[in-house]
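Dear colleagues,

As part of the handover before I leave the project, I'm documenting each prediction I ran so the next person doesn't have to rerun anything. This entry is a single chain, and its sequence is reproduced below.
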Amino acid sequence: MHDTPIQFTGALLERLKTKVIEKAPHLLPIVLAIRDHGVGFLVIPQRATGLDRGLDLLERPFIVMVGDDTDCALGPDQYDIAALDRLIGMADGVAIISCEPPPEAYSSIALMAMAHRNGLIIETRPEQEIAWTNRVQAVCPEMPILFCTVKGPRQ
C-alpha cells in the first residue's frame, strides 16, 4: 500500500480557516497559501518518527513546521538527524521562532512558498534557539534564517 498525501479541500479548508482566525491568526497566511496556491504542508511534532516517509510525500513548493515548543523544548538532537538534515537541505529559507508568534514570520514563509520556494518554520523555546540555528548552519551555511527571539532586557 502506498502512502498518499491528505488533500485539503473546500469545506475542510474553510473550517480550518475559521478556527485559525479564532485561535491562531498568525497561521492564516499559511492556510491561505495551502488553499489558494496548493502549497504542501507538513507538521513535525516532537519525537516524530517516520519523517522520511512524510518528506517523500511533500510536493513542492511546501511549508514544513517543526513543533519543538511545547512545555519543554528538546532541540534538534531529539529528531532523526539524517531526516532532519534532509529537510533542512530541501528548504530555501528558515524561520526560527522562540517567542510569541510574530505574524510577519509566518507571512514571510507563506510568501516564499507562493513564490515556489520551500519554507521551514522551527517553533522552539529560547533555550534551544542556538542549537537549532547551529543545526541549520551546519547543514546549509548560506541558508537565509529569519530569527525571531524574545526581547532582551535593556542595558
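The chain has one domain: 40-148. Residues 40-148 form one domain.

All the best with the project,
I.
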